[in-house]
Amino acid sequence: MASAVSGLEPSALWNNFAALSLIPRPSKQEEQVLAWLQEFATSRELEWQQDETGNIVMRRPGSGGGESAPMVVIQSHVDMVCEKNSDVEHDFTSDPISLLRDGEWLTADGTTLGADNGIGVATALALLEMKEDAKLPPLECLFTVDEETGLTGAFALDAALLQGRTMLNLDTEEWGAICIGCAGGGDSQISLPVSYEGAPSDFLSFQLAVEGLKGGHSGVDIHEYRANAIVLLASVLVPLAEMGTRIVSVQGGDKTNAIPREVFATLLLPPEAMADAQIAVAERTESLRREYGTLEKGMRVSLMGLEDAPPECLSAKAQGNLLGLLRTLPHGALKYSHTIPGLVETSNNLASVAPVDGNYLVVCSSRSSIMEALEDIRLRIASMAKMCDAITTRTGTYPGWQPNPDSPVLKRLKRIYAAQLGEEPEVGAIHAGLECGVIGERAPGMDMVSFGPTITGAHSPDERVEISSVEKFWDLLLELLAELAEA
Ligand SMILES: [Zn+2]
């Protein structure tokens, strides 16, 4: 069978990618690929180590004049997202990925390709296999496990594996771009003790709903100022509360990393306020449409009568505290970076609200590329919660990677990249978590950049890699390493 990679350059990289594609490697089920990597190292007599989590490091001495240069870490992740089209029979725990050539692109047959980050892994293996006289600094190739489902390999990395303090992460998916930063994050679990009282007897029950919003990822979509259903609902509740409306319950939002798309409140309205309440909701909805309508085309705000008459509602005090919280907690981009134009530096997602075990639980998910700023926004959230008689617990903190425009390896990479591209590369950062953030915290003082060839449709069966960008990426990497060999 003619291989989909035959004739492609650099052949060592593509042959390693084809070989890797035969080995199953779903996130959290990396045993087979780790065994394969161990075999790769032992059969080539490369020094290798593995930590308890499974992360592997393989080392190659400097060569071609780079013998005494500082060690350079080449980092990639071995796991892949396993998605397939519904009409495709494929068992990701046993079947090889079928590679297909599609003109200028390499893709898979109805499944994810695993170019994310298999091209990075294959690149590292190709470097380790280079001739003994190749001009290279000492290399330390770090292969992490389970990047795709929570960076757990990086989190559990035994930093003693790493001797180098310059790291090239090969998990950026756009040729021409260099990534130099990511956001750290952490949640605030706000617990509001509430009491209930008997529902006023003649009040009528209604459901107030905000639905049909775009939602999206609370990191990479936050700069768009998509509407947050909880924020919108709270703003509609204000005029209703002034009319004597009582809140029975409020529930909305799902995952901490998703912008809430819908939220529902059960309310009791005084009969004499009915007409005014309908008008207030209509007016508020119209204002929200003026504010969000061109972006949130599916937005629906409704006030509908309910059959059931709830026996109790929140006490006046509890209602005031809950509404106070939902009106006060911030949502969206809170600060943009002065270092990287257009980058959201700090943000908060007012992620969910729900009654839990007799209390109300409100969850905020904050992000920042500057850890002190992350800490500060979470302290502010705790202060706001305290003013509403709620108690905040901070959970799930993970580190960011603060952009360093003066990074020595960035300066070299930019110069070489610009010469190859004929224009300046795009230097940026993302407002979400990356392995570099975690590894940089575990191995302090690490000078890092991330770059790679063009991959589109990652995490979907449409994933494909642009063949020509892989060759350019390889040439760029070799040129950078040749320079670092002289350092
Ligand atoms: Zn990746």
Write the layout of secondary structure elements.
Blueprint: H1 11-21, H2 31-43, E1 47-50, E2 56-60, E3 72-77, E4 99-102, E5 105-108, H3 115-128, E6 139-144, H4 152-155, E7 166-169, E8 177-182, E9 184-193, E10 196-198, E11 204-211, H5 229-242, E12 246-252, E13 263-269, H6 274-292, E14 300-305, E15 312-314, H7 316-328, E16 332-336, E17 344-356, E18 359-368, H8 371-387, E19 391-398, H9 408-421, E20 426-430, H10 435-442, E21 447-450, E22 455-456, E23 464-466, H11 467-486
Parallel strand pairs: 3-6, 3-7, 7-21, 8-20
Antiparallel strand pairs: 1-2, 2-6, 4-5, 5-23, 9-18, 9-19, 10-15, 11-13, 11-14, 12-13, 16-17, 17-18, 22-23
Helix pairs in contact: 1-3, 5-6, 9-11
Bound molecules: zinc ion.
The site of zinc ion has 5 residues, from helix 3.
Walkthrough of the structure:
- There is one protein chain.
- The protein has eleven helices and 23 strands.
- A six-stranded mixed sheet has the order 1-2-6-3-7-21, with helices on one face. Strands 16-17-18-9-19 form a five-stranded antiparallel sheet.
- The model has no long low-confidence stretch (mean pLDDT 96).
- A hairpin with a 2-residue loop joins strand 17 (344-356) and strand 18 (359-368).
- The protein folds into two domains: 11-183 and 401-486, Aminopeptidase; 185-398, Alpha-Beta Plaits (2-Layer Sandwich).
- It has 487 residues and is α+β, with helices and mostly antiparallel strands.
- The longest helix has 20 residues, at 467-486.
- The protein is elongated.
- Bound molecules: zinc ion.
